[in-house]
């Protein structure tokens, strides 16, 4: 018997994952619930899910094995905790939570319940991060001593409409969500490749100047007027990491919204919107082709006849050549993907962890290291860049 899964929140993002959970061979049933029942109903019909449930509480009282949380970004902590305490394995969209206390409580609950917790960090499977992870594992950087991660997503490129859909009439109060409380796409893309974590931070917040009521302290439910923020982190291995979280920026986010740079003593890797290069002390190698995500073609698309057989899976699954699509269920072939080819891997990581009891790559301890640095960076920005220590919950145990 496969797993029974309940999705919480049938908004803009959940559908991409509902479809994949349903396709996974280890998943038997997929239910969904939303505060707005018509959204849950529409997603059920669109993706032919098992059915809707009346509420989050009804889902926890049901016999689903696992829940996948796709509610608004500041709401995850309490929902995740309630689900773990109700005996459910948990997949959570990013971020893990928005306070130190929520994160500590989730780690404690995972330790006590021995249930699977995974944060669905898309940057962990960003092709640049996958590429850098491989180079790092082979020791090709030498000592990595400086890294950069940017999440550059301008509000004008989709965020106004997304927050309006998400926040109803009071949407402006939610659209001011502090950039550093959504740090996982930048921090996670760096830390997903190297074996280090942040121990202290100094951050500068840039106050917004557009004057349209978004990022206005008088309107903001987060009392926030920073629309961009830049943080410099000290790492546990003595290195440094620079993170940018930008929401007002002249940059084509739709081409590539997360970008990374890694500098080692022997080699370096640098990525821009449409280019990526590997460099050692003598040469520059353009590796853009390796990390460019392919369009998702239908399995019977005639142009596939001309494609190198080793790249065929990448072409029918919206992945990059650097991705290891061969580890995924064949049922995913031809299914839409997203965020530079990451969605298929995230769904498979979670289902595999629940089905086998293994630790997912972005488990609670790793998720904390992707999220806490941003929470403390925001506090630093509020104190004009005061350098602050970052708490650490340690490495994930080998098993629970
Ligand atoms: N690259 C990425 O990893 C990525 C990209 C997009 C969104 N996300 C994350 O996905 C999550 C969802 O984003 P979205 O754009 O779909 O949001 P959304 O606002 O469109 O949808 C959220 C839905 O959750 C519902 N909801 C809220 N609380 C609920 C509850 N207690 N019970 C049942 N339903 C509830 C709301 O009614 C809404 O329909 C966010 O946390 C966001 O950060 C991640």
Description:
The protein has two domains: 3-121, 3-Layer(aba) Sandwich (Rossmann fold), CATH 3.40.50.720; 123-338 and 362-389, Dihydrodipicolinate Reductase, domain 2 (2-Layer Sandwich), CATH 3.30.360.10. Helices cover 33% and strands 21% of the residues. Strand 13 and strand 14 (284-286) form a beta hairpin. It is of the alpha/beta class. The longest helix is centred in the last third of the chain and has 19 residues, at 364-382. The strands form two sheets. The chain has a nine-stranded mixed β-sheet with strand order 14-13-12-11-7-10-9-8-15. The structure holds nicotinamide-adenine-dinucleotide (NAD).
Features:
400 residues; alpha/beta; Rossmann fold; Dihydrodipicolinate Reductase, domain 2; 2 domains; 9-stranded mixed sheet; 6-stranded parallel sheet; 13 helices; 15 strands; binds nicotinamide-adenine-dinucleotide
């Amino acid at each position: 018997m496969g797993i029974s899964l309940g999705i919480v929140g049938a908004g803009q993002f959940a559908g991409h994952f509902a479809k994949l959970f349903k396709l996974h061979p280890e998943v038997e049933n997929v239910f969904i619930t939303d505060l707005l029942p018509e959204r849950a109903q529409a997603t059920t019909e669109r993706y032919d899910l098992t059915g809707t449930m009346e509420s989050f509480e009804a889902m926890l009282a049901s016999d689903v094995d696992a829940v996948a949380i796709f509610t608004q970004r500041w709401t995850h902590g309490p929902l995740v905790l309630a689900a773990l305490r109700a005996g459910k394995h948990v997949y959570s969209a990013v971020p893990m939570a928005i306070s130190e206390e929520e994160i500590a409580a989730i780690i404690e609950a995972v330790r006590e319940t021995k249930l699977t917790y995974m944060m669905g960090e898309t940057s962990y499977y960003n092709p640049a991060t996958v590429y850098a992870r491989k180079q790092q594992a082979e020791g090709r950087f030498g000592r990595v001593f400086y890294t950069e991660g940017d999440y550059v997503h301008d509000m004008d490129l989709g965020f106004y409409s997304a927050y309006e859909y998400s926040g109803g009439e009071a949407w402006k109060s939610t659209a001011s969500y502090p950039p550093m409380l959504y740090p996982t796409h930048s921090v996670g893309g760096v830390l997903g490749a190297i074996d280090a974590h942040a121990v202290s931070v100094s951050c500068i917040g840039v106050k917004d100047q557009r004057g349209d009521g978004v990022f206005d302290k008088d309107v903001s439910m987060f009392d926030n007027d920073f629309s961009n923020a830049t943080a410099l982190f000290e790492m546990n291995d003595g290195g440094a990491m620079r993170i940018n979280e930008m929401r007002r920026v002249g940059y084509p986010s739709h081409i590539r919204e997360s970008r990374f740079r890694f500098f080692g003593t022997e080699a370096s890797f640098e990525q821009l919107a449409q280019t990526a290069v590997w460099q050692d002390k003598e040469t520059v190698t353009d590796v853009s082709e390796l990390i460019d995500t392919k369009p998702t073609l239908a399995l019977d698309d005639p142009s596939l006849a001309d494609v190198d057989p080793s790249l065929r899976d990448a072409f029918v699954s919206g992945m990059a050549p650097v991705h290891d699509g061969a580890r995924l269920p064949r049922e995913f072939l031809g299914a839409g993907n997203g965020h530079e080819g990451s969605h298929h891997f995230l769904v498979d990581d979670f289902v595999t962890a629940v089905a086998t009891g293994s630790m997912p790559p972005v488990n609670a301890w790793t998720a904390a290291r992707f999220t806490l640095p941003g929470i403390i960076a925001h506090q630093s920005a509020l104190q004009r860049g005061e350098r602050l220590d970052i708490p650490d919950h340690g490495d994930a145990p080998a098993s629970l």
